[in-house]
Amino acid sequence: MTFRTDSSMRRRALGGIAAVTAVLGLAAVPVLAQGNGLAMLGTLSKGQWTIKQRGGAPDRKICVKSGTELIQLVHRESGCSQFVVEDGAARVTVQYTCPGNGYGRTSIRRETPALVQIESQGIQGGMPFQLTAEGRRTGPC
């Protein structure tokens, strides 16, 4: 019967943790490297955009500086963590979590530099939401 000492068990556990951290760290590099500089969003025209939500909600106007403003149309607060699911030439999808206020998943499809289709769903304030909208550049900010 072999007994392991506490130190050998700790070394083995730390080695396993280091291996998992290394794998996760390497997997996260592309997301961290791109940050919020999602390629497609950077090609959108800067300025005032009108968001026309399907289903009769009133139009909303927002100032687009980087394109990332279109990701969290329901959760407008800062401090939400984001995870890039898809970063394509014509479509991006981002999942985000806002501590204490829910989460969402938004897909934005670029038709032209001044026209996008937006789909977002999630939970805000304990209630589900679903948003389908068209975003169009309508002028300067």
Q: What key attributes describe this structure?
A:
21% helix; 141 residues; seven-stranded antiparallel beta sheet; 1 helix; 2 domains; alpha+beta
The largest pleated sheet is described as: 7 strands, antiparallel
What does the oligomeric state look like here? single chain
Number of strands: 7
Write down the Rg.
21 Å
> What is the strand content?
35-45%
Number of DSSP helical runs? 1
Mean pLDDT reading: 80
Helical residue percent?
Answer: 10-25%
Summarize the structure.
This protein has 141 residues and is of the alpha+beta class. The chain has one helix and seven strands.
What does this molecule look like?
The protein has 141 residues and is an alpha+beta fold. The chain has 2 domains: 1-34; 38-139. The protein contains 1 helix and 7 strands, in the order αβββββββ. It has one helix spanning 6-34, and strands at 47-53, 60-64, 81-87, 91-98, 102-112, 115-124, 127-139. It has a 7-stranded antiparallel sheet with strand order 2-1-7-6-5-4-3, with no helix packed on it. A hairpin with a 2-residue loop joins β6 and β7 (127-139). The longest helix is centred in the first third of the chain and has 29 residues, at 6-34. The chain is globular, with a radius of gyration of 21 Å. The N and C termini lie far apart (75 Å). The model is unreliable at 1-36 (pLDDT under 50).
Topology:
Layout lengths: L5 H29 L12 E7 L6 E5 L16 E7 L3 E8 L3 E11 L2 E10 L2 E13 L2
Antiparallel strand pairs: 1-2, 1-7, 3-4, 4-5, 5-6, 6-7
